[in-house]
Amino acid sequence: MGGGAKAATTDAAPAATGPERPLRPSPGWAMGAAIVGALLVAAVVAVGALIAVPPSVANLASSTADGVAAEPLGAGADAGAAVIVPAGWIVVRESEEEILVRTPDAALEARVRTASVPAEEALAAAVPGIADEIGAAPGAERRETLASGTFAVHVDVDPSVTVAAVAESAEARGSVVVETRIRDDVDPARYRAALAQLLDGVRP
């Protein structure tokens, strides 16, 4: 007798997959790219700000005096005054009319600025505010002709604080005020010669 018929077998055709989809960046990669872009923009802005920095900010940079070049003081009617800062001292320009100078060891610091009044008047205007600030009674005024030939009047507000005004003469209309402070942990007497050298360098 004949056997049962065998079922026909066929290979199944592969399922259609359709067009391939493009790979999409992961959220983490996209965030990293955004951060890098933001940093690049910030860097460009920072460089632009440095290039276009205002003179008032640029002047805050310090320099080291060579003991020869004079630092100009004053603007407008007060222009023409200057000071030769001793060699090695640090100079910080705060404005056209004012500089801050200090010894290399930072023990003595002096603020030097112009005044459009005679030396004695400039001193009288400067001393009370400083005396109130440090709570001290000013000493007696002293007047002298400096080695440079200029006239100076000065007061010790405190053993470590001296205010001086320098002019071409006692009657001269313009003057330069020098407010000097010496650190409390050093002997002021050690810096008298340095102060005298700074005053001698003033060119009213």
Question: What attributes does this structure have?
Answer:
204 residues, alpha+beta, 2 domains, 8-stranded antiparallel β-sheet, 3-stranded antiparallel β-sheet, 4 helices, disordered N terminus
Description of the structure:
With 204 residues, the chain is an alpha+beta fold. It folds into two domains: 30 residues; 144 residues, Protein Transport Mog1p, Chain A (3-Layer(aba) Sandwich). The protein is 26% helix and 27% strand. It is built from four helices and eleven strands. The longest helix has 25 residues. The radius of gyration is 37 Å and the shape is globular.
Helix content: 25-40%
In spatial order, strands of the major sheet run 1-4-5-6-10-9-8-7
**What is the rounded distance between the termini?**
139 Å
Total beta strands: 11
**SSE order, one letter for each helix or strand:** HHEEEEEEHEEEEHE
Number of DSSP helices?
4
- Secondary-structure-based class equals alpha+beta
Number of domains: 2
Task: Look at the structure and give the mean pLDDT.
Answer: 81
Largest sheet: 8 strands, antiparallel
Low-confidence stretches: 1-16, 44-59
CATH architecture of the largest domain: 3-Layer(aba) Sandwich
Q: What name does CATH use for the topology of the largest domain?
A: Protein Transport Mog1p, Chain A
What proportion strand? Answer: 25-35%
Which CATH class of the largest domain applies here?
A: Alpha Beta
Shape assignment: globular
